[in-house]
Write a structure and sequence with these properties.
By secondary structure, the protein is α+β, with helices and mostly antiparallel strands. The protein has 14 helices and 17 strands. It folds into 2 domains: 281 residues, 3-Layer(bba) Sandwich (FAD/NAD(P)-binding domain); 158 residues, Elongation Factor Tu (Ef-tu), domain 3.
Length: 453
């Protein structure tokens, strides 16, 4: 075996793909255009830089599909989830990280691997040898054009928005308080992982008015705003109804204001720690396409943030993805050019975890093909299998849109003994998935108790 696997893109998916293939004995070259060629959203040249949020979402591997995906990645020795665990911050039942330390950890581990090298340059055409394209939502225009030309159709696109980050020492803690919703968490640090800013009805209504009248980023001629519902700009949510935010990122349930314990907030803005030092907090769910001046004006109307200093304001960028159900086979290869696999967000999965998971699969599948190994199909009952099955054929091609992992992608479980509650059904999904994934990886069979660990 002398073939080298080339991976274009050093984000979550590309880094994970490289790690998995290298651990199978394959020589890998990652091609990353940053920092020579910059993007709107990235700030560094580190691998696996996080640009939208610092959260990998729920870490519950018994009752949540994304938590199950975490479990599967850990079982497969994933570098992304290991780096996340190494740089975790208190976030209740979620897995949030110090984003700068996380990216540095991934960069250090991947570049130190003896089978991996990194080439920092922009790739503008499709290669002929074994390759994985994992360029993510900010694929360069030249490479996107090359992909579109090969696919025989235009790439699809939607717009994604970035939430602002605030300096903790500029927040008025005489108005705000620390508490995770419903006091979730095993430790006091986890139970106080979120910073809360309360609003009464009058303040909330004024905030909505300010959002609806704020100056926003305009699109270039010919561009359209096809947002992904899981990452809507806050002002777009407000346009859907004045109460939308109170039932979304600003819901007041599960929280008690210690400054006014007898007064139930009408709405609550939550902030989550963004670094290990606790000096930076991002405003949860506040992705925005407002212009910078409007952002500072509107966000400073939030009680506790009147004197806020922003380490980063929100922004908007174009996300590119392909129509995977039409273009990819079950091995994640381009049907028209099978030496090329696609991985990550460009395939139409949404989220850091899902992107890294598709990189994990692409890396293993590409390495096995180079080695002449015949891997069995990824079990459809696993989170990995449900997700890859969705993008490579399970989704309706005509209406294909980015998708997070969720139990709606799984084959239904048979609830023996009558109707089961949602918690029981989710546990059945996760137990079944863990057994199938362990078997696919060649790990010892799990009994019921070890599957829950």
């Amino acid at each position: 075996m002398t073939q080298t696997l080339h991976i274009i893109g050093g984000g979550m998916a590309g880094s994970e793909a490289a790690w998995q293939a290298a651990n199978m004995g394959i020589t890998v070259v990652i091609h990353e255009m940053r920092p020579k060629v910059e993007t709107f959203a990235h700030q560094t040249g580190d691998l696996a830089e996080m640009v939208c949020s610092n959260s990998f979402r729920s870490d519950d591997d018994e009752g949540n599909a994304v938590g199950l995906l975490h479990w599967e990645m850990r079982a497969a020795g994933g570098v992304i989830i290991a780096a996340a665990d190494a740089n975790a911050l208190p976030a209740g039942s979620a897995l949030a990280v110090d984003r700068e330390a996380f990216a540095k950890t991934v960069t250090e581990r991947v570049t130190a691997h003896p089978n991996i090298s990194v080439s920092y340059e922009e790739v503008t055409s499709l290669p002929e040898g074994p390759c994985i394209i994992a360029t993510g939502p900010l694929t360069s225009s030249a490479l996107a054009d090359a992909i579109a030309a090969e696919a025989g159709q235009e790439s699809l696109a939607f717009f994604d928005a970035i939430a602002p980050i605030v300096h903790f020492d500029s927040i008025d803690m005489s108005r705000a308080w620390m508490q995770s919703r419903y006091d979730k968490g095993e430790t006091e640090e986890e139970r106080t992982a979120y910073l809360n800013c309360p609003m009464d009805k009058e303040q909330y209504e004024a905030f909505i008015d300010a959002l609806l009248s704020a100056d926003v980023t305009t699109f270039k001629p010919g561009e359209t705003a096809g947002y992904f519902d899981g990452c809507l700009p806050i002002e777009v949510m407000a346009e859907r109804g004045r109460e939308t935010l109170r039932f979304g990122p600003m819901k007041p349930v599960g929280l008690t204001n210690p400054h006014q314990p007898d007064v139930k907030p009408h709405a609550v803005v939550q902030l989550r720690r963004d670094n290990a030092l606790g000096t930076l907090y991002n405003i949860v769910g506040f992705q925005t396409k407002m212009k910078y001046g409007a952002q500072t004006t509107v966000f400073k109307t939030i009680p506790g943030l009147e004197n806020a200093r922003f380490a980063r304001l929100g922004g908007i960028h174009r996300n590119t993805f392909i129509n995977s159900p039409t273009l990819l086979d079950e091995q994640m290869r381009l049907k028209s050019k099978p030496n090329i696999r696609m991985a990550g967000q460009i395939t139409g999965v949404e989220g850091y975890v899902e992107s890294a998971a598709m990189g994990l699969l692409a890396g293993r599948l590409a390495a096995a093909e180079i080695l002449g190994q015949d891997l069995p199909p990824v079990p459809v009952d696993t989170a990995m299998g449900a997700l890859v099955s969705h993008i490579t054929g399970g989704a309706e091609a005509k209406t294909f849109q980015p998708m997070n992992v969720n139990f709606g992608l799984f084959r239904p479980v048979e609830a023996k003994g009558g109707r089961r509650g949602r918690k029981d059904r989710y546990k059945m999904y996760t137990d079944r998935a863990k057994a199938a994934w362990s078997e696919w990886l060649g790990l010892p069979a799990l009994d019921e108790s070890s599957a829950a660990e």
